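Researcher: We're teaching a course module on how sequence relates to structure. For the next exercise, students receive a sequence and then see the predicted structure as tokens, so they can try to spot secondary structure elements on their own. Here is the exercise chain.
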Amino acid sequence: MKLWIVTVPALFLALSGTSRAETLREAAVAAAGEAALPAAPEEGDADDGEESDPARTRVYWKDHATHFEMEGALIQLSNRIQFRFTHTDPPDDLQLPGTTARGQGKGSFRIRRAKTTFEGWFWKPELTFELQLNWAEPEPGASTDTPLEDGYLQWDASRTGAFMIRAGQFKVPLGRQEMSTSSGLQFVERSILSFEFTRGRDIGVEVRGRIANDKLEYRAGMFNGNPASRLDNDNTKFQYNARISLQPFGRVAYRESDLESGDGPLLAVEAEIESNNLHGATNANDLNTTILGTSVMFKYRGVSLYGEYFDRERKPETGPTFKSNGYIVQGGVFLVRDRVEVAGRYASFDPTDQVGGDDVTERGAALNYFVLGHALKLQADYREVENDALDQRTREVRFQTQFVF
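Model: And here is the predicted structure for the students to work with:
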């Protein structure tokens, strides 16, 4: 691997977004304070023909987003861009596109993500929404060429966050790393485990909430079971998900680095299940898949430890049922509190128990420099991905910056 690529980090600064509130009522409170929030209109006010008072409208910048606060609504607008450089050294017997020989390395720049997000509430604070567009690339497998990532409406029926109903397109509740915002990852990208066992976004409905003095989070939903932004369901069946998270010391954000624990520890212990029967979806030998998962996240005084395990059973339309499993162990520690962090990762999965010696493994290390928390950071990592079945090993060095405005 060429030595010159170690100079690339000097080209980058990093900026990342903050986590989304469980409901945007909470975001509104955090942005303006309870007393400053515009009062929700009384029943019938929306049709009384009166114009809104311009004096009640405020536009301000807070938490790396532009807020539009007005009578009966709050809209937050933010943009996030990820600019990445990757140098790849392939196996000796593999030729990368654009190279002239097998085993020849290749570097390239890329806009990995370029997102615009609108979120807020309207009519009443318990009725929230999010619209997120990714201009860099469509969702994998989408049947329409659309930038849509998230688009949903959520109603907090309890008005306390204990019972909420969400409908639209959003991430299904499977996999802590997949559910974590890309702006809060310790490595430049998610692990091979996340890409193998989780699918990201889908269209459907979900009930969710936090109970037991905010120590227990639950989510359960029904989805099409195919990639996001499809025009319809691929068959007559649906995908079902359920997830529960015990957080005894307070909320554990869906971010990986510890910038939040303060003087006390944070812990999340989680269990989840997914059932997705794709029989009849295509002309191929479609699978009926059940996934069981468990994860743990611990954060304390700049130290973060994360582990996750998946056990998957798949039944083809023809042929025997087979199983596969995988796990990840990842941790980080700040060398300089809230400034310089190092992290390590080990992930591995077995595609099928019907074949021996076919494991896929990822090993990696990362270095992060936080200029302004997750608002401004530089990320660099190195990883090796080894495929036992192909007897191949690929090495990558990656640098990334992201910024929100």
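Model: If you want an answer key for the exercise: The CA atoms of residues 64 and 405 lie 6 Å apart. The first strand starts at residue 58 and ends at 62.
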